[in-house]
Design brief:
Layout lengths: L1 E2 L7 H13 L4 E7 L27 H13 L3 E6 L8 H4 L24 H17 L4 E3 L7 H5 L2 H10 L4 H18 L3 E5 L1 H4 L12 E4 L3 H9 L3 E4 L22 H6 L10 H4 L2 E4 L13 H5 L2 H9 L9 H16 L22
Helix pairs in contact: 1-2, 2-4, 4-7
């Protein structure tokens, strides 16, 4: 997963990342395109959205998105685009302030600001975004977020509370269900199936019956992943593979790069007690390169070669997780001869000599 809201990645950089993924058999790019900080996707029917882009240069046209997707497909990689809603929506409000909630006491942290779910205008803009994505992204799936919703922001907005009062509703969770129900009618219209973060099932499942074809992504823990699979859904694991964490697992390493060992040991099925039918719904994993402290200057050294630990884990038997020593040798070799030799500036994980590095210096 790449995050292009916290820091913009150029079209060329994303294509370079795609090329690197193909070298290590990572076959899906999860593109977390927009978030609270910026909305870089140019939507022709909603031009105000890119007012929150960092600069007019930090924008993805639909033609650019299509170019990336076509290039990825030529290398056997699918691209699944994420528009994280209803939370993380402050960037939407720069151009369309009426469609986000107004909660002055929380405005110091833009991650608190969700969409306003009671306005028809909100759903008009959301549909314009999904329609634009559907034009250039042929994948069956679209990721529509659903995580870290700060419902208490809704509570401070008189428009929202008055609307709920007219409905006779007193529980903000009912509002989540209302939003997701209307959202479902939109993405179904464009023949898309939703991928969501775990909260839509585990926190709001009693208020919105999540469609059974939804793919649910666990990010807080493997226990959450177990609950997702146990509930009968197809699941993706991200817990344990957060590329931005210094302690992604249970071990604090002296050296940053050694976190690859935690990634390698993090098997989605080992010790989970899944039945064969449940294991058939484990679709794989998603390593998340959140970008608060990552931009083109350090993306490759931050993500590679540690992503090799995830790649090998997801293509290996669960029983291999303890064989870290032999995995290290393969990782060192692949870092030099698979990545660096092909112009991917992957960082080292131990003292060694890689002659491919010399071309950089």
């Amino acid at each position: 997963m790449i995050d292009t809201s916290r820091h913009y990645l150029s079209v060329g950089k994303i294509m370079q990342v795609v090329k690197a993924l193909s070298y290590i058999k990572m076959n899906v790019l999860h593109w977390h395109m927009v978030d609270a900080q910026s909305f870089p996707l140019q939507v022709p029917d909603a031009p105000g959205l890119t007012k929150s882009a960092y600069t007019p240069k930090a924008i993805y046209t639909l033609e650019a998105v299509q170019k990336i997707i076509s290039y990825a497909r030529s290398l056997g990689i699918r691209v699944v685009i994420e528009i994280d809603i209803p939370g993380h929506a402050a960037s939407w409000g720069v151009g369309y302030p009426e469609i986000v909630a107004n909660c002055p006491s929380m405005s110091g942290n833009i991650n608190n600001i969700p969409l306003n779910p009671v306005l028809d205008k909100t759903y008009e803009i959301v549909e314009q975004v999904i329609a634009a994505i559907a034009k250039v992204a042929p994948d069956n799936f679209i990721h529509l977020g659903g995580d870290e919703l700060v419902k208490s922001c809704w509570k401070q907005d008189a428009r929202i509370m008055n609307w709920m009062q007219q409905k006779g509703w007193t529980d903000l969770n009912q509002l989540v269900g209302y939003f997701e129900s209307r959202l479902e009618t939109i993405y179904r219209k464009y023949q898309k199936t939703m991928v969501s973060w775990e909260e839509l099932l585990l926190a709001y499942g009693n208020y919105y019956p999540l469609p059974k074809d939804t793919i649910v992504q666990a990010w807080t823990s493997k226990q959450s992943f177990g609950r997702i699979i146990g509930a009968g859904y197809r699941g993706l694991l991200s817990a344990g593979w957060y590329m931005d964490k210094q302690v992604p697992g249970n071990t604090t390493h002296y050296l940053w790069g050694d976190t690859w060992e935690d990634f390698y040991k993090n098997d989605p099925t080992l010790g989970m007690g899944f039945t064969p039918e449940q294991e058939s719904r484990v679709l794989g994993g998603d390593a998340a390169a959140w970008a608060e402290q990552v931009d083109p200057s350090n993306f490759e050294t931050r993500v590679f070669p540690r992503l090799l630990g995830v790649a090998e884990r997801l293509w290996s038997q669960a029983s291999n997780t303890q064989d870290v020593d032999s995995a290290r040798e393969r990782l060192v070799f692949s870092r030099c001869h698979v990545l660096v030799r092909r112009n991917i500036n992957a960082g080292p994980i131990r003292p060694d000599y890689c002659d491919a590095v010399e071309k950089y210096y």
